[in-house]
């Protein structure tokens, strides 16, 4: 069940401004009835400013009046007051500091073994820049002496499925893609003849 954003402050306001029972306030705020009693007696939260649930769009005055008239009725919240989480957009992925030095090695591997990959695909796979790719390709990178071609999957910069999907996409674009099942079928028919 949804509860008010500030349950104790809402309870203080309901105690001070309504004739609701402690049980009704407790069930609405998800606090124990003894906590509501302590708030009303001033034993807890003395000096706490009440939070008006009507202003925060958690209750309506009609709902409060309905429950004041019937002590067995329960307050119903209008809607969840919490904002809905936004889906994270696909942006550049985070690479830990310890693996950032491995990016040029992975770029060198991809340029050597998969020349059909576009720079934009390498940028997406590894999380690098086109300037870095060009520097490795043209052998003008500042650390070119220490760059050794290493598989980006082994380095942990991308997954094998991501790499395979990018290679397949690049091969389809270039018109050189053949499904593995086609290769296996052609080899089987060629060996049987």
Structure commentary:
The chain has 193 residues and is mainly alpha-helical. The protein folds into 2 domains: 7-69, no CATH class; 97-178, no CATH class. It has 11 helices and no strands. It has helices at 7-17, 22-29, 33-41, 61-69, 97-100, 103-113, 119-127, 130-137, 152-155, 160-174, 180-192. α1 packs antiparallel against α2 and α2 crosses α3 (33-41). It is elongated. The N and C termini lie far apart (71 Å). Mean pLDDT is 84; it is low at 182-189.
What is this structure's SSE topology?
Elements: H1 7-17, H2 22-29, H3 33-41, H4 61-69, H5 97-100, H6 103-113, H7 119-127, H8 130-137, H9 152-155, H10 160-174, H11 180-192
Helix pairs in contact: 1-2, 2-3, 6-8
Task: Sum this structure up briefly.
The protein is mainly alpha-helical and 193 residues long.
Helix and strand sequence: HHHHHHHHHHH
SS content category? mainly alpha
Overall pLDDT, averaged? 84
Percentage of residues in helical conformation: 40-55%
First-last Cα distance: 71 Å
Number of strands: 0
User: Outline, from the CA principal axes?
Assistant: elongated
- The helix tally amounts to 11
Residue fraction in strands: under 5%
Characterize the main sheet. none
Number of domains: 2
């Amino acid at each position: 069940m949804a509860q008010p954003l500030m349950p104790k402050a809402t309870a203080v306001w309901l105690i001070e401004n309504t004739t609701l029972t402690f049980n009704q306030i407790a069930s609405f705020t998800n606090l124990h009835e003894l906590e509501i009693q302590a708030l009303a007696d001033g034993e807890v939260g003395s000096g706490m400013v009440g939070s008006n649930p009507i202003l925060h769009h958690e209750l309506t005055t009609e709902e409060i009046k309905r429950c004041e008239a019937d002590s067995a009725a329960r307050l119903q919240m209008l809607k969840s007051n919490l904002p809905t989480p936004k889906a994270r957009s696909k942006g550049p992925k985070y690479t830990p500091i310890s693996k950032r030095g491995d990016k040029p090695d992975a770029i060198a591997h991809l340029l050597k073994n998969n020349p059909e990959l576009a720079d934009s695909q390498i940028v997406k796979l590894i999380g690098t820049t086109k300037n870095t790719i060009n520097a490795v390709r043209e052998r003008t990178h500042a650390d070119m002496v220490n760059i050794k071609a290493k598989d980006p999957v082994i380095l942990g910069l991308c997954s094998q499925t991501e790499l395979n999907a990018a290679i397949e996409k690049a091969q389809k674009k270039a018109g050189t893609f053949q499904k593995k099942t086609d290769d296996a079928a052609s080899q089987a028919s060629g060996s049987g003849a």
